Structure formats: structure tokens, C-alpha cells
């Protein structure tokens, strides 16, 4: 992200402006949030006034939905640059890479197999995770788990760590999010502490690395990770990797690395079906101490379809609402508590409407839009329509893919990324997209 923003503005702005306003910024991804740190409040204000729209646009491909942006002003001496360049001007030597990794990445003891509900959507990933946790380094190495946001990848990763740690308290385990791994590499560069960094990772018994897609377009990190991965696998130390897409679909990662990702076992986690969503709600509400009835669970599950994180969010909201009003949870109460969400759904643009509007706009037939035809004249509008469906409906990637002639979720994701990046480089396409978007939103 940092690289993408920096290189974009470097091209777009006079050098002096770039050096004054953009270069000193630190871009960090924190979950679904973009954290933007400026060296002082003045720079921050300028950035907010002048560069925010472009920064938001650049950030989009790194998130599943438009991210919230949090602004910070750097505390003195606490700068940790994400820039790989050697002339990086850190005022105070940051923490050694390995130490930070140890401190930052404790396992979360709440994320265990016992609380992980299984169903058709995740049973393969679950079974593989259990096997890896029971016989680390023996069964599949690496285990590569991929799937969309909020579907339980981190939960499974942590569950593996917790089980291995329970069975073997001496095991050296590291759970790390890829963005923290990247920061670790950068810090090792800055402090010239590469030996310590390498030694830390190479001495692990179990490396759990989350959301590996973030190392795309970071050649330094990729090289480092390639060595670590090989060294661990060669010595039968278990590595588990999660990612938002199928390994070969990640762009910006060296082929030698993606091919290494797939040399163990690759498993997908799919969005849960209705019954599984109900099972999750029943389990979570029971764990929370306020079990809901099946009727209520079905009601929620029918309306919240995107992922498990959203499902949890809806349940929490209902529980809080019931507590506040001192009422028991019923469908009626669930309706009231989820009022906004349900209203938003009613207002939602339908997929059919998107397909028809895009087809009309480009003067092509809807059947062609849904067909297997791959000529540019059809394929581009199809990608635009998919991207609009992603933005304007609550449908999941597989649901969108399905509605576009039975394509799979990675095709939809690829379409969205392609259109996002074209919107930055092709102003005519961007204008078309905005017009369609506005028309559909009414
Ligand atoms: P991801 O890493 O794929 O984005 P998470 O692992 O963070 O998703 O899951 C989102 C939330 O949903 C977490 O609170 C997690 O505990 C919960 N969750 C995900 N999958 C399951 C499951 N199969 N059973 C119970 N809870 C789940
Ligand atoms: Mg996750």
C-alpha cells in the first residue's frame, strides 16, 4: 500500500510537493482500517485537504470494502517506516525485529477448535487444520487456507496454534499477520538486524502467517519469506498460511513463492450456507449466555448472508438491544434491532438491474454479459457489472459469480481488482463507472 501510494504521487506531483507531504507519511493497514500517520499536524491537515481522495482510491484494492481512515500524528521517536529504502530516516532505532514479532503476536486463547462450527463450507479446511495441529510438520506442509473475509481463516490459524501449544507447551510458535511480518522485515533492514530476524523465524516449530496476500508487490519481503518458508519446510517445521485468494490468483507475488505455497495442501473456506449460519448463531448465542430460538436464528441467518463476522455483529446488536430494553429475544425484537440493516437491504440495487443497466449502457445483450464470451467488448462491461454488484449489493463473491453465468468467486475478485486499477489509469472508463454507479444508486 505504502509503495503503491508513494509511487503514484511521485509520478503525479512536483518533487518538492511529494517530498514535503507524501514521502513522510506512514501507511499502515490495521484490519479493515487504513492508518495514516503524518510527522506533524500541519502535514496531516494538508494531506487531508488535498490528497485524501487519491489516497483512499489507492487504498481500495487492499481492503474488501472502502476502508475507514484513521489519522495519527507521529509521536516523537516512534517512527517505524514502511519504506524499504536504506536512507530511511528513523530518529530512534526501532525495536529489533524478532522481539517485536514475539510481543505482538501472542495467540488468542479464545480462538480454538471447540468453538469453530463446521459445515460443508469449511469441513475440509477444518479437517486439514486438525491434522496439521496433531502432527505438525508431517501431514501437509505448508497448509494453505484461502477464502473471503470473515469466513474463519484467522480463527482456524489460531486454533492450530492453540492446540499445538496445549499438546506441546515447549513448542516455539509464532502467529503473525503478514503486515506485521512486513514491518519486521523493514525493521530488520533499518537496524541491520537480519541475523536476529532470520534466526527467530528459522528456529520456530510452527509458523502461522495470516493474510499472505499483503506481501504482494513487496519483493524484499517475498525474498525473505521464500528463504524462511524453505528452511522451515526442509526441516519439517510446520507452516500454515492464509490468503484471500487461491495462490495462483494473487498478483504481485513471485511465481517461485506461489508455487511453494501449493506444494503442501491447499484448501478453501467457502461462505457458509443457511443451515451453517443458523448453527453458528445458535452456538454463539449459547456461549454468550443468551441462547436464541431456532426461529430467531433462521430469521437472522436469512438476512445476514455475507460472512460470519457480520453474523456475529448482528447477533451482538440484538443481544445488546434486548439487554437495554430488558426484553427477551424474539423475531420482532430482532427486526427492531436490525432495522437499519433491513432497510438498507430493501433499498438495495438488484443484480438484474445492474446487469440490465450495464448491458444497455454498452449496447450489448444481457445473454452475452452472462455468456462465456471473452472478447473485450463483452468482457470489460461484464467486469464492470461484477464490480458494481460487489459495491452495490450485499451478495458474496460466489453469489455474484454464480449470477454471472456460473463463474467462480476468484473471477469476480479479479474483475473487481482489474476495474479498480483501470479506474485509476483510464479516465473514460472511470467516468463510465461513476455514471453507472450513480444511475443505479438513483
Ligand atoms: P477471516 O480471518 O477469514 O477474515 P475470522 O477468522 O476473523 O475470519 O472470523 C470472523 C469471526 O467469525 C471471528 O470472530 C471468528 O471467531 C468467527 N468465526 C469464523 N468462522 C467460524 C466458525 N466456523 N465457527 C464459529 N465462529 C466462526
Ligand atoms: Mg483474518
UniProtKB/TrEMBL annotation:
Biological processes, Gene Ontology terms: DNA replication initiation; regulation of DNA replication
AAA+ ATPase domain ranges (all copies): 139-270
Main location: cytoplasm
Keyword list, A-Z: ATP-binding, Cytoplasm, DNA replication, DNA-binding, Lipid-binding, Nucleotide-binding
Recorded superkingdom: Bacteria
CDD domains named in the record: AAA, Bac_DnaA_C
SMART domains according to UniProt: AAA, Bac_DnaA_C
Region (Domain I, interacts with DnaA modulators): 1-89
Classification via PROSITE patterns: DNAA (PS01008)
Function: Plays an essential role in the initiation and regulation of chromosomal replication. ATP-DnaA binds to the origin of replication (oriC) to initiate formation of the DNA replication initiation complex once per cell cycle. Binds the DnaA box (a 9 base pair repeat at the origin) and separates the double-stranded (ds)DNA. Forms a right-handed helical filament on oriC DNA; dsDNA binds to the exterior of the filament while single-stranded (ss)DNA is stabiized in the filament's interior.
UniProt-listed NCBIfam families: DnaA
HAMAP family xrefs: DnaA_bact
UniProt free text on domains: Domain I is involved in oligomerization and binding regulators, domain II is flexibile and of varying length in different bacteria, domain III forms the AAA+ region, while domain IV binds dsDNA.
Protein name in UniProt: Chromosomal replication initiator protein DnaA
Amino acid at each position: 500500500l505504502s509503495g503503491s501510494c508513494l509511487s503514484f504521487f511521485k509520478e503525479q506531483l512536483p518533487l518538492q510537493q511529494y517530498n514535503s507531504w507524501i514521502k513522510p507519511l506512514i501507511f499502515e493497514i490495521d484490519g479493515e482500517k487504513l492508518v495514516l500517520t503524518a510527522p506533524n499536524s500541519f502535514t496531516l491537515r494538508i494531506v487531508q485537504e488535498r490528497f485524501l481522495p487519491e489516497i483512499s482510491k489507492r487504498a481500495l484494492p487492499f481492503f474488501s470494502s472502502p476502508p475507514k481512515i484513521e489519522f495519527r500524528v507521529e509521536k516523537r521517536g516512534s517512527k517505524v517506516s514502511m519504506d524499504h529504502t536504506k536512507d530511511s530516516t528513523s530518529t530512534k532505532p526501532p525495536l529489533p525485529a524478532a522481539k517485536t514479532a514475539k510481543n505482538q503476536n501472542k495467540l488468542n486463547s479464545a480462538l480454538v477448535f471447540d468453538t469453530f462450527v463446521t459445515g460443508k463450507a469449511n469441513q475440509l479446511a477444518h479437517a486439514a487444520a486438525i491434522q496439521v495441529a496433531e502432527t505438525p510438520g508431517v501431514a501437509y506442509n505448508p497448509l494453505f487456507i484461502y477464502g473471503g473475509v470473515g469466513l474463519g481463516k484467522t480463527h482456524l490459524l489460531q486454533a492450530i496454534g492453540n492446540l499445538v501449544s496445549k499438546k506441546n507447551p515447549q513448542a516455539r510458535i509464532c502467529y503473525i499477520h503478514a503486515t506485521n511480518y512486513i514491518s519486521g522485515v523493514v525493521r530488520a533492514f533499518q537496524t541491520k538486524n537480519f541475523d536476529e530476524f532470520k534466526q527467530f523465524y528459522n528456529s520456530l516449530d510452527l509458523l502461522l502467517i495470516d493474510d499472505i496476500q499483503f506481501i504482494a508487490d513487496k519483493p524484499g519481503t517475498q525474498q525473505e519469506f521464500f528463504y524462511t518458508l524453505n528452511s522451515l519446510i526442509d526441516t519439517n517445521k510446520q507452516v500454515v498460511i492464509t490468503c484471500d485468494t487461491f495462490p495462483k490468483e494473487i498478483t504481485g507475488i513471485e511465481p517461485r513463492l506461489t508455487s511453494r505455497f501449493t506444494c503442501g495442501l491447499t484448501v478453501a473456506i467457502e461462505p457458509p450456507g443457511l443451515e451453517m449460519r443458523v448453527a453458528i448463531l445458535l452456538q454463539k448465542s449459547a456461549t454468550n449466555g443468551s441462547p436464541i430460538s431456532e426461529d430467531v436464528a433462521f430469521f437472522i441467518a436469512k438476512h445476514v448472508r455475507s460472512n460470519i463476522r457480520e453474523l456475529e455483529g448482528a447477533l451482538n446488536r440484538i443481544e445488546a438491544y434486548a439487554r437495554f430494553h430488558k426484553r427477551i429475544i424474539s423475531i420482532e425484537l430482532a427486526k427492531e434491532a436490525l432495522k437499519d440493516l433491513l432497510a438498507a437491504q430493501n433499498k438495495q440495487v438488484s443484480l438484474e438491474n445492474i446487469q440490465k443497466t450495464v448491458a444497455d449502457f454498452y449496447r450489448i445483450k444481457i445473454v452475452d454479459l452472462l455468456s462465456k464470451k471473452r472478447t473485450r467488448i463483452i468482457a470489460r462491461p461484464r467486469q464492470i457489472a461484477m464490480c458494481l454488484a460487489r459495491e452495490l449489493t450485499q451478495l458474496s463473491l460466489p453469489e455474484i459469480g454464480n449470477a454471472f453465468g456460473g463463474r467462480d468467486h476468484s473471477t469476480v475478485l479479479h474483475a473487481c481488482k482489474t476495474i479498480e486499477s483501470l479506474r485509476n489509469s483510464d479516465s473514460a472508463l472511470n467516468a463510465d463507472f461513476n455514471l453507472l454507479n450513480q444511475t443505479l444508486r438513483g
